[in-house]
Amino acid sequence: xxxxxxxxxxxxxxxxxxxxxxxxxxxxxxxxxxDVLVGTILSQNTNDxxxxxxxxxxxxxxxxxxxMADAPVREIERCIRVSGLSRVKAPRIRSxxxxxxxxxxxxxxEHLKDWPPPRAMEYLLAFDGVGPKTALCVLIFSFHMPVxxxxxxxxxxxxxxxxxxESVPFARAHEVLGPMIAPGDRYATHVLLIAHGRTIxxxxxxxxxxxxxxxxxxxxxxxxxxxxx
Length: 229
What we know:
Layout: H1 2-22, H2 33-43, H3 48-61, H4 65-69, H5 73-80, H6 86-104, H7 117-125, H8 132-143, H9 152-160, H10 173-177, H11 186-199, H12 218-226
């Protein structure tokens, strides 16, 4: 319990420094649930520019989800080729849209807004191609649920900061990190850690000499002593 308390206090200090550097982040609605679900699937194993380009081409070609659900997989695949893994993502997206329509009579996830997070999470994880990060992104960005998605940036930073061990499986990292963060701070912590990972705590050649979290980061201090940053 003492260790948990120390980690929670450390995360509070981390958030304070992130907000001091980037400015505070209030929760923003990123769009309806289906929009965020499809967009997050497209973001898997690619960068933001490519996933955004694929999403825009997709909705330009199919303005309504029903049109996409009824389209040939090859047409969907052509639209999202820029996002990578199009032969995998296209059939998954169409299958999910069809399943939602079959179960609810229309392609919407608005029924999730009144569900408790664990039930909504279980529902989303039942879709092929939807893992914990994708499901949690839908819940926090579309429905303002106090969950904590973990992407590769957050996982890397959490290990370097000593918040969790690298033996924790990626798919379970949210279970370790989420409880350390106050529910009202989870959105801001999520988006600010990602910003930090993109600009300072990069996968290769992290900028430890410029890092405002260095005093809290065991890995960063080791790198500085070794002249690796």
